[in-house]
Amino acid sequence: MVTKQLREDLPEDADLRRADSLAREIFSDVANKWALLITEALGERTLRFSELRNEVEGISHKMLTQNLRMLERNGLVDRKVYPTVPPRVDYTLTEPGRALRGTVDAICGWTHQYLGSIEDARRRFDT
Amino acid sequence: MVTKQLREDLPEDADLRRADSLAREIFSDVANKWALLITEALGERTLRFSELRNEVEGISHKMLTQNLRMLERNGLVDRKVYPTVPPRVDYTLTEPGRALRGTVDAICGWTHQYLGSIEDARRRFDT
DNA sequence: CTGAATCCGCGGGGATACTG
DNA sequence: CAGTATCCCCGCGGATTCAG
Question: Across the interface, do A103 and B106 touch by the CB < 8 Å criterion?
């Protein structure tokens, strides 16, 4: 999926092609900074909108709502509205969301592990 | 790192804050569609520019060069120039790059695994 | 073939105001 | 407090051109 070498370009199988385009679409949704940061911020906890806004450093109101909608649409987060006043909305990772979280952790771990190496590489390159 | 709850906001420790901002920078570099797709396209192989352009479906000339520069700068890909005519340039993942590839595979695997679930969630949401 | 540079349009994304 | 809508601008990113 996603990359060419893994796809069988059988022109007669429209289903595979459709599934692949869907996979690429999901990949594009998920492989972006904010979506991943939100996912990690949620973790095992359930947070309200304003808390999330504080946890995900630097995210704007707009980006947060946009990405939350997207994550909700893809079934990665569960959105629970309490019809109180003032309103309260809780966000929680669903099972797929928690599963994705594992991969985010992997990226974070990777970043941590190679931080020094990357810093060095940059210094070397910037000359 | 990256998210607030993992950071200790000790105002006296400027080093930690710097490392954190660096981590967020690297995360932003790496957590983007094209960088990840290029990384996976490379895999264990070494490809030239034009081959990469074919492998990474839909990427433009400009985005490819830009991301390759970025990956090279961070020491994730090795760039080997053959001073022939016409010129030939080979790209290969370095060890950090191959390590990152593992996490990309994880995301791809995740996509694959939850594709059906996500498709369903979308259908439910789009009503 | 690789890649830097230029032009340019479109959309991402911030700020703000307004509803419930 | 949560969310939508509007305005608006900057920068991403595509197309094209030029160089080596």
Answer: yes
Beta bridge partners of B92: B46, B78
In what side-by-side order are the strands of the sheet with B46-48? B46-48, B88-93, B77-82
Could you read off the pLDDT of A96-114 as tens digits, one per residue?
Answer: 999 999 999 999 999 999 9
User: What distance lies between CA A81 and its chain's CA centroid?
Assistant: 22
**Which residues in chain B have Cβ-Cβ distances shorter than 8 Å to A125?**
72-73, 75
Same domain, A104 and A88: yes
Q: Does A45 lie in the same domain as A99?
A: yes
pLDDT value at position A4? 47
Write out residues whose CB is closer than 7 A to strand D: A 48-51, 53, 61-62, 65, 68-69, 79, 81, 86-89; B 58-63, 86-87
The pTM score is 0.90
- B2 Cα to chain A: minimum distance (Å): 8
- Shared domain check, B69 and B19: no
Domains in chain A: how many in total? 2
Question: pLDDT tens digit string along A52-69?
Answer: 999 999 999 999 999 999
**Could you give the CA distance from residue A73 to residue A68 in angstroms, rounded to a whole number?**
8
Q: What is the domain extent for residue B58? A: 34-126
